[in-house]
Design goal:
Elements: E1 2-8, E2 11-17, E3 28-29, E4 37-40, E5 45-50, E6 54-55, H1 57-67, E7 76-78, E8 81-83, E9 88-93, H2 103-116, E10 122-128, E11 135-138, E12 151-157, E13 160-166, E14 173-177, E15 181-187, H3 189-192, E16 193-197, E17 207-213
Antiparallel strand pairs: 1-2, 3-6, 4-5, 5-15, 7-8, 9-10, 10-17, 11-16, 12-15, 12-17, 13-14, 13-16
């Protein structure tokens, strides 16, 4: 079991994570997407899932958690209340003219941009420290300026559920994402569907979501 320190408000908050068997390998991803499968949620919306797409995910998790400047967003509206967001976040953008936090993230960003024909120029990092961290039902905000944006997520750390449902309510579908899984939302997903990472009663450790967007 690994002990990782997360900077929060000038102090180190310790989070425990039991790594996976394949997560301890040298980091590498599958450029051929051999395990990727597509699911059509409706006539205009699809998701792709490639389980364990990034091998050696624990090493990537450790370096990112140790070095990224995570912060907690304040004044966030969740379930009609204004609260401090119950997760930690950090960001990278190409416009800042700085290299990605790890070279493998640059390689992943370039590969995903080519496959999905999206100029991914932003990476968001969201750390769910335990089962109390979450994000409410939502669609990504840049759907207001980009038609049918593609969102690609590489999940590191312990698996947590990510759920999707039609916008406004309805039956949801759920995936347990972690340990290097690649999950991509495309088509009209951000317009017509919502997604959430809900609170859970128990989890085997923190999860870090690495999200590629075109902003």
């Amino acid at each position: 079991m690994e002990l990782t320190g997360v900077l929060l408000g000038g102090t180190i908050e310790q989070v425990f994570y039991q790594g996976s068997l394949f997560g301890t390998l040298v980091p590498e991803f599958d450029p051929a997407f051999l395990e990727l499968h597509r699911l059509d949620l409706d006539d205009t919306t699809w998701v792709d899932l490639a389980p364990g797409w990034l091998r050696g995910a624990d090493h990537v998790y450790d370096e990112l958690v140790a070095n990224l400047p995570f912060r907690q967003r304040t004044g966030v509206t969740m379930y009609d209340r204004v609260v401090d967001e119950p997760r930690l976040s950090a960001w990278w953008r190409a416009e800042h003219d700085m290299p990605e936090p790890m070279s493998i993230l640059r390689d992943i960003r370039v590969l995903l941009s080519e496959r999905y024909r999206e100029p991914f120029d932003s990476i968001g990092f969201n750390l769910y420290r335990d089962g109390n961290d979450s994000v409410a039902w939502h669609g990504d905000r840049h759907r207001h300026v980009v038609t049918n944006p593609v969102i690609a997520i590489v999940s590191l750390g312990a698996p947590r559920p990510l759920r999707l449902r039609p916008r406004g309510g309805g039956a949801s579908v759920s995936w347990q994402l972690g340990n290097g899984d690649l999950f991509v939302m495309g088509g009209a997903c951000q317009h017509d569907w919502e997604h959430t990472v809900p609170k859970v009663r128990a989890t085997s450790g923190p999860r870090l979501s690495v999200t590629f967007r075109s902003v």
